[in-house]
Design goal:
This protein is of the alpha/beta class and 186 residues long. It has one domain: Nucleotidyltransferase, domain 5, CATH 3.30.420.10. It has six helices and seven strands, in the order E-E-E-E-E-H-E-H-E-H-H-H-H. It has helices at 55-73, 89-108, 118-126, 133-143, 153-168, 170-184, and strands at 2-4, 10-12, 14-20, 25-33, 40-48, 77-81, 113-116. It has a five-stranded mixed sheet. The protein has a two-stranded antiparallel ribbon with strand order 1-2. Helix 3 crosses helix 5 and helix 4 (133-143) crosses helix 5 (153-168). The radius of gyration is 16 Å and the shape is globular.
């Protein structure tokens, strides 16, 4: 789909895959649209890995699923939650490792990757950088005109990342979408 900007140029919709990284649950959500227009849900889900598997097995499983999603969703860009410091180093490390897998998969395909902080996403979606998971889920539901919030919260967070990127990266998204569609013949 296309719209026209102020100068009459055609502005394509952009498809963004959002990734809420985690070793046990890695949220994935894709939306399509452009800033200032209603967005459309493309896909949403969660990659789960057993906590008793070794780290290598878990990362390979995440990589395989992210690759599958990239094949099926065919995004123009990938938005990943920027890992932030916590007191639990083990959690931060696992989150960073899962994020690195998603970034690597996207980079391997030449897709632009953007990192957004949790507070940036919360502010973009709800207007408050301190919004809680319930508020994020409610706004994602409303913005995508869904019947119910995506479950678990990791799925809603991934969609929030994708929405944030569509809205915040509008100029970059237009260029990325045009280049990606030209390259893929879409």
């Amino acid at each position: 789909m296309f719209a026209s900007d102020e100068g009459g140029a055609r502005v394509p919709d952009v498809r963004v895959l959002g990734v809420d990284p985690g070793l046990t649950r890695c949220g994935l959500g894709a939306v399509e649209g452009r800033a200032g227009a209603p967005l459309r849900l493309v896909a949403v889900g969660v990659i789960r890995t057993p906590s008793d598997d070794d780290i290598g097995t878990r990362l390979v499983a995440i990589e395989a699923e992210v690759e599958r999603w990239l094949d099926e969703v065919r995004p123009d860009a990938v938005a990943v939650e920027r890992v932030f410091a916590q007191r639990n180093v083990r959690t931060v490390m696992g989150t960073a490792q899962a994020a690195a897998v998603a970034i690597t998969c996207a980079a391997r395909r030449g897709l632009p990757v953007a990192l957004h902080t949790p507070s940036e996403v919360k502010a973009a979606i709800t207007g408050s950088g301190t919004a809680d998971k319930k508020q994020i889920g409610a706004m994602v539901t409303r913005l995508l005109r869904l019947d119910a919030p995506p479950k678990p919260a990791d799925a809603a967070d991934a969609l929030a990342l994708a929405i944030c990127h569509v809205w915040r990266g509008a100029a970059q998204n237009r260029l990325a979408a045009a280049l990606a569609r030209t390259a893929r013949g879409r």
